[in-house]
Design a protein that fits this description.
heterodimer; A: MetI-like fold; 10 helices; about 80% helix; globular; B: about 375 residues; alpha+beta; Rossmann fold; OB fold (Dihydrolipoamide Acetyltransferase, E2P); 2 domains; 21 strands
Chain lengths: ~230, ~375
């Protein structure tokens, strides 16, 4: 099977967008998960609801809201462009932001579950051994959350590869810039005689999906084994 | 010195505990389940916050609510051994041992790595992961981890409670070795009196969130507050003795208790002068007002009745002074009346050698001079 330059571009772009999206959301998701599990503050419920919003909203609505907020004339987008020259709408970075927002609830859920499963007694033990708050988090809590963080990252990565609605609404469908695999597939279907191209892209997506799942399972097994949870 | 005086209220549970103990040896916090001993040790360790109170160990004030001082647990420098070991599952045994060692704040290097490895026989375990260890091995690693953090004292919260009888016997000698070889005060929480007998030098008895008796084990062993918890059947004088002579042929050792009283006990070969701890259960003591003759009993201790306390069940406990040491005898009231026993009566306390329990009890290591 021969792939065209445009298809390979879409593959590369999908990887780039999904990787950036996961790297961007991982630390934020960890912080939010920590706040939701351990935090005792007013508005925790509101934060929880806000985080889960992309899960229940149509992706197109999320894309539209992003456009309103992060567009060139939006309150945040305008400010970013004015002070840092950063443009998000219609760029690869914007695509990463859109997929990050869409996959954020999945990631927070996975990390949150793993944090809830961490035995507070182990943190107490670390405390009596002289570890301060940040030290405890880095040396005990974070490693014990690792299975959940990995699961969250892989799920979010897979979801980012496939995100369509929010991406096309926020950053449009620009070849080489924002045309990821699902957008390329959509374009191929819209094009006369694009059937073969669509099939090739579908195969690529399948292979990526299976590869991701296998990688996730392998990592999870390795971590479980080292923690003695197998 | 260990000085603890704390109060805590959580819903229906109120704890008001005060005790003082010497800064060396093993202080046992003893009481039934739910009496607040774990809460108390958590307050000492700082894992729980006291409503009010003061805690000082070895001259260092760790908590003084009146002065607004509350040292967080990570800076209290108290080694804590939990009932469930709490080894870090993502680290090897060596990683666990290094965890506290790397974070040790004080420059006092009381215990060296190699000594701990040797004392607790950890060398074969170093590369293993916690989940591959047996319960007894886990507690040994937990002990080593706490020791290597160079603590000013060790807190042990029922470290043997989650182990079966065989594993307990496997770990106890290590705890005895720590008491003997390290000059480190230990606070040992337990609801098993046999552990207390094996390990404790000082006893704090708790009931319903309060300290009901405290002092050197030999003194508290006769306290009614202790009897109320362990029952009259398990009550008995605990005496610290010295071996005078061991006769390999009979398997008996002649030991001295108090000023000049002598007992014969079954004991493994022991050198003259070796310290031994004996427990004489109150129900095993026979009281005679005449010098015994023609009896199989090996031990007859001359003494004087110090006091008589009537018990609820038609019985009486008699405290007998045998010269710098005291026994307690559990008698029927009828016997007390027949023998016309009263405080001051001269008596002989008869104890069968086979009913005596003894075990070596080396003196705790002397406290080092603070740097």
């Amino acid at each position: 099977m021969e792939f065209t330059a445009g298809e390979l571009d879409a593959l590369r772009l999908s990887f780039s967008v999904a990787s950036r999206s996961v790297l961007l959301s991982l630390p934020v998701a960890t912080l939010i998960a920590w706040l939701l599990v351990r935090g005792r503050f007013r508005g925790r419920f509101a934060l929880d609801a806000l985080v889960h919003l992309p899960l229940v909203l149509p992706p197109v609505v999320v894309g539209y809201l992003l456009l309103v907020i992060f567009g060139r004339r939006g309150p945040v987008g305008g400010w970013l462009h004015e002070h840092f020259g950063i443009q998000l709408a219609f760029t690869t970075a914007g695509a990463a932001l859109a997929t990050a927002v869409m996959s954020f609830p999945l990631m927070v859920r996975a990390i949150r579950l793993s944090l809830e499963a961490v035995d507070r007694g182990l943190e107490d033990a670390a405390r009596t051994l002289g570890a301060g708050p940040l030290d405890r988090f880095v040396s005990i809590t974070l490693p014990l959350m690792l299975p959940g963080i990995l699961a969250g990252a892989v799920t979010a990565f897979a979801a980012s590869l496939g995100e369509f609605g929010a991406v096309i609404t926020f950053v449009s469908n620009i070849p080489g810039e924002t045309r990821t695999l699902p957008l390329a597939l959509y374009t191929a279907i819209q094009t006369p005689d694009g059937d073969a191209a669509a099939a090739r892209i579908a195969v690529l997506s399948l292979v990526l999906g299976f590869g991701g799942l296998a990688l996730a399972e392998g990592l999870a097994r390795y971590v479980r084994r080292t923690l003695g949870q197998a | 010195m260990i000085h603890v005086d704390v109060a805590l209220r959580r819903g229906d549970f109120a704890l008001e505990a005060r005790f003082e103990a010497p800064g060396a040896g093993v202080v046992a916090l003893f009481g039934r389940s739910g009496c607040g001993k774990t809460t108390l040790v958590n307050l000492i360790g700082g894992l729980l916050r006291a409503d009010a109170g003061r805690i000082a160990i070895g001259g260092e004030v760790l908590l003084d609510t009146a002065a607004g001082r509350d040292v967080p647990p990570e800076r209290r420098e108290l080694g804590y051994v939990f009932q469930d070991a709490r080894l870090f599952p993502h680290l090897t045994v060596r990683g666990n041992l290094d965890y506290g060692r790397r974070r040790a704040r004080s420059r006092r290097q009381a215990v060296a790595f190699d000594d701990v490895i040797e004392l607790l026989a950890l060398a074969p375990l170093l590369g293993r992961r916690p989940y591959t260890l047996s319960g007894g091995e886990r507690q040994r690693v937990a002990l080593g981890r706490a020791l290597l953090a160079q603590p000013r004292a060790l807190l042990l919260d029922e470290p043997l409670a989650s182990l079966d009888a065989a594993r307990r016997e496997e770990v106890l000698p290590y705890l005895e070795a720590l008491r003997t070889r390290l000059a480190l005060p230990m606070i040992y929480v337990s609801h098993a009196f046999d552990e207390v007998l094996r390990l404790a030098t000082h006893l704090v008895v708790m009931d319903h969130g309060r300290v009901v008796a405290q002092g050197p084990l030999a003194d508290v062993s006769l306290d009614p507050a202790l009897t109320a918890i362990i029952g009259t059947g398990a009550t008995g004088a605990v005496l610290d003795a010295r071996v005078l002579e061991h006769d390999a042929a009979s398997g008996l050792a002649r030991i001295r208790v108090g000023r000049d009283a002598e007992l014969r006990v079954r004991a493994d070969a022991a050198a003259p002068g070796a310290p031994l701890r004996v427990q004489i259960l109150a129900r095993d003591v026979i009281v005679s007002v005449h010098p015994p003759q023609g009896l199989s009993v090996r031990n007859a201790l001359a003494g004087r009745i110090e006091s008589l306390a009537a018990q609820a069940d038609a019985t009486c406990s008699a405290l007998i002074d045998i010269g710098d040491a005291r026994l307690v005898a559990h008698l029927t009231r009828e016997a007390v009346d027949d023998l016309a026993l009263r405080p001051g009566s001269a008596v002989w306390a008869l104890v069968k050698s086979v009913s005596l329990r003894s075990h070596p009890f080396p003196d705790p290591a002397p406290r080092p001079v603070p740097a």
